[in-house]
Amino acid sequence: MEAITNFVRVVLLLALTVGKVASECDFDPPQRGVIIPGLNKGGCYVCKDEGRSALLTNVELIQACRLMCEADPQCVSFEVGRTDITPLYIHFDFGPINCCIEHVAVAEEHPLYVDAAGDDTNCGKEASCWTSFVKSDPDSVCGDATGRTAGQCQRAAMPCDEYDEDELIEGHKQRLDGDCSFGDDEKAQALLDIAAPQCAAGMSEASGGNVFMPSGGVNLGTRGSSAATGAFKVNALLVVFIWGGIAVIALLC
């Protein structure tokens, strides 16, 4: 009888543990053309399709970047970028980054907040190529996503990794004050000028594989990803296991 009691305790502990790991965070609706540039204290990543080595786009990119956020206990927001802007980042030796993790909320009160709407400077042009997602509850615990991210998103080496947050904010405030000018770097300006119109068009309509956001948008308040499906399957199997254990106990008793 003691063995049966211990079995029940293990099953209940497993149920509680899996339920906690499979927990999910809610995110507010996407903010198109809105970013906090240059902070990225959770890092920026290159997210690719493992099979084709092509950059992830559309919902696949959003979900992969979301997993990177969920794997970082300090993550409050994440940002996903269109492929149009990646040549600019390659030019600066960052790699084709398309996912960045923020430890702060992408919100208007932040000193580095940029909204592409009505901003025709370089700052607004770059922002038009990104979409941000913010946790509905910044203190929520998402569960352990580590391991589900391996292979899809690889961290890029960024200059921001070498500075603390106050230094980054001060430096990028000066950059914003200068309209995010590239100075004499004509190639960088040309790459941004090519990307910006494509990004601006993509903010309102889908146009093939180069769009990360399908028309109509994506609301991550309730996850529709394979990760959620996997969590559901795990929980379903757990329920079967628990009831199977109960049936065995009933037979033994």
Using brief descriptors, characterize the structure shown:
253 residues, alpha+beta, 6-stranded antiparallel β-sheet, two-stranded antiparallel sheet, 7 helices, 8 strands, globular, disordered N terminus, disordered C terminus
Terminal residue distance: 9 Å
The coarse silhouette is globular
Chain oligomer state: single chain
Q: Beta fraction of the residues? A: 5-15%
Largest sheet, strands/sense/barrel: 6 strands, antiparallel
Overall average pLDDT:
74
* Strand element count: 8
Strand order of the largest sheet: 1-7-4-5-3-8
**Helical proportion, percent range:** 40-55%
Q: Can you put this structure into words, describing what you see?
A:
With 253 residues, the protein is of the alpha+beta class. The chain has seven helices and eight strands; from the N terminus they run αβββαβαββαββααα. The protein has helices spanning 2-21, 58-70, 86-91, 122-127, 165-177, 186-202, 226-252, and strands at residues 31-32, 34-35, 44-47, 77-81, 99-102, 114-115, 130-134, 153-155. The strands form two sheets. A six-stranded antiparallel β-sheet has the order 1-7-4-5-3-8, with helices on one face. A two-stranded antiparallel sheet has the order 2-6. Helix 1 (2-21) runs antiparallel to helix 7 (226-252). It is globular, with a radius of gyration of 22 Å. The termini are close together.
Summarize the structure.
The protein contains seven helices and eight strands; from the N terminus they run αβββαβαββαββααα. It has 253 residues and is α+β, with helices and mostly antiparallel strands.
